[in-house]
Q: What sequence folds into this?
């Protein structure tokens, strides 16, 4: 192995697989709550907003890049043979990874309609995946330490950003919610184009490529969604996916609106 491969091999350091509400999960949960409280009490301005977005955005981008490299690297200890095989199922364009790119982009944008729409998406829509993982990360945990750190930073960090936006930045009104929906639909369309193009390109070699878990060629690995997709026509599954995301975001909006109104009393 050369020096780069030795570093990648070292990054594959293994630990006992964490468990839901075990010490590893609990520490990240507590840290996230403390960070949410800290940002809630901190005075809000444009400088702080951009700092929060860029710290999360670039931090998660670096961890995502390391994850892609680590999962593509294979080393056979017996033969000493090194091989590289990209894991297409881990391509970083899912509901939970879009905040990486959104936060980096918004960190360099001045306030305006485009930034507002993108931040509304993170506040009302991507928070759903963050909450789900924060509550039950069992399926995300593996025996590789770096991947577990990546998973927790990606989802808990996004959760902190979403709460910060709800508390300090976004307007809690239906116009904001609709603009968040609009960005979500755009990302869904991009994901579906990618699903179709990559599948038909012939480069997968039997591997799974299922962005936003809406591919017509592969069954979703998400709980409940997999059952619906297996037992109904694809169109029904696709509508079910969209409706559940819309309803979940609506619930986030209504809860946020309730607390916002009580705060202003």
A:
């Amino acid at each position: 192995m050369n020096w780069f491969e030795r570093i990648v091999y070292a990054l594959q350091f293994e630990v006992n697989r964490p468990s839901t509400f075990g010490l590893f999960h609990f520490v990240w949960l507590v840290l996230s709550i403390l960070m949410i409280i800290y940002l809630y009490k901190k005075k809000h301005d444009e400088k702080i907003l951009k700092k929060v977005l860029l710290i999360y955005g670039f931090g998660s981008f670096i961890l995502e890049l390391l994850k892609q490299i680590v999962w593509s690297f294979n080393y056979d200890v017996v033969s000493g043979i090194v091989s590289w095989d990209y894991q297409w199922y881990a391509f970083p364009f899912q509901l939970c990874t879009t905040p990486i790119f959104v936060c980096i982009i918004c960190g360099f944008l001045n306030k305006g309609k485009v930034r507002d729409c993108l931040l509304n998406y993170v506040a009302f829509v991507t928070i759903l995946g963050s909450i789900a993982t924060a509550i039950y990360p069992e399926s995300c945990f593996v025996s590789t330490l770096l991947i577990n750190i990546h998973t927790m930073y990606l989802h808990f960090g996004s959760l902190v950003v979403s709460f910060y936006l709800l508390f300090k930045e976004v307007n809690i009104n239906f116009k904001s919610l609709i603009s968040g929906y609009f960005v979500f639909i755009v990302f869904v369309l991009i994901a579906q184009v990618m699903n179709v193009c990559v599948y038909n390109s012939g480069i997968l070699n039997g591997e799974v490529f299922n962005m936003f878990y809406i591919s017509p060629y592969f069954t979703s690995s998400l709980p409940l969604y997999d059952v619906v997709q297996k037992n109904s026509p694809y169109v029904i599954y696709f509508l079910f996916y969209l409706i559940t995301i819309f309803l979940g975001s609506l619930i986030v909006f209504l809860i946020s609106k309730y607390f916002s109104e009580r705060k202003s009393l």
